[in-house]
Amino acid sequence: MRSINLDTLIAAFAGIETITDPHQVAKLSQDYHTFSPVLVPKLEGKVGDIVVRPANEQEVLKVAAICAKYRVPITVRGAGTGNYGQCVPLYGGVIVDMTKMQEILWVKPGVARLEAGVKLAALDKKARDLGWEMRMTPSTYRTATIGGFIAGGSGGIGSIQYGLLGDRGNLLALKVVTLEDEPRVIELRGDDVQKVNHAWGINGIITEVEIPLGPAYPWVEVIVTFDDFMTAAKFGQALGNTDGMIKKLITIFASQIPQYFHALHQYLPGGTHPAFLMVAESSLESLPGLVQQYGGQITYQKPAFEAGKGANLGEFTWNHTTLHARTVDTSITYLQSMFPADPQLQLVEHLYNYFGDEVMMHLEFFRVNGKVIAGALQLVRYTTEKRLNEIIAYHEQQGVLIANPHTYIIEDGGRKVIDPEQLKFKEMVDPYGLMNPGKSKVLQFKIKN
Q: Record's superkingdom (predicted)?
């Protein structure tokens, strides 16, 4: 890649918001990879040279043309809520901050079209005014952008009903700008969206997204506590399989984890294993019978009309669980796991007992190919990288899929391999290998040479 004078770039970007202050540039070169003690030293000091904030698609095209002309690396970011260093630039260059592109283009029954920088909470608010809502959101939905969610996310609150973001039908269309000598705008629809979905920003600059919506229900938040972890886990799976009840969140915590939830302490008796739930108001009447069947106790209930007031249970689940724990103890890190379908949750039980206090179990139930699956974002008491790798290896030997959050290489994370269709698409849209270079094993040789 060519070296280039920064003044030349600044002049070329005239008319587009540009940030050169070193502190701001460094801040906008980071994400939440600090959750991983393995990634922190590997990504230390990795910053861009300049940040640009395009306000519209025409400005994105201009940025792309300049970067292609001067062969400057480009790293696209939204709010930077990802956890794997996806938006940390390994080779400097230009950071493209998409957060100014905030227009919700339209919302219709069951579908919405929006620019990449729209915050998920803003879309949800607009959609709910029409009786619809996002099918799934990460726990960072207040700040996360739709472009960042598509490029780096996988699922979240709502996945118990609708599956994962990569499942067919959960993403309808994308617009991307290419990094060719003469950049183009390409629209992908149907299965072609997978050429860019969860590609960590290596396959074009996402400018617009079209997603399906789900019916908006009044959601009630509930905490149920259990004296035994596996009883709590089996309750969670049973609720997930109760198709007549409408639910948005089923999270189960081992008893060590509630100590990190200061705002909820009064509802979490010591030594108990809580379930955090979001169920539709119309399904609430059916919940106590299931709770009683599994010997649980409802300790907290927030009615739907109080949504947005006080603590929001969703912001203690998914990746926010790790955030809360690390606020108390920065030595804690985490895993991301998917257990095989198992009505008895035998593997969950084995690993819960095998690792004990070293790996604190945190389950998130979601749907995969029509089946309710136990995923996990276990909290790990970190000691050494060697021990962390042993923990990961043991999980994998038992048949648990680990989406490794301690690597910034796509193939070493959840993907294991890059989709050949994504590689073919990249060759077309990014012929000089300028987009987020260094994040793929397959592409590194090209970048270095």
A: Bacteria
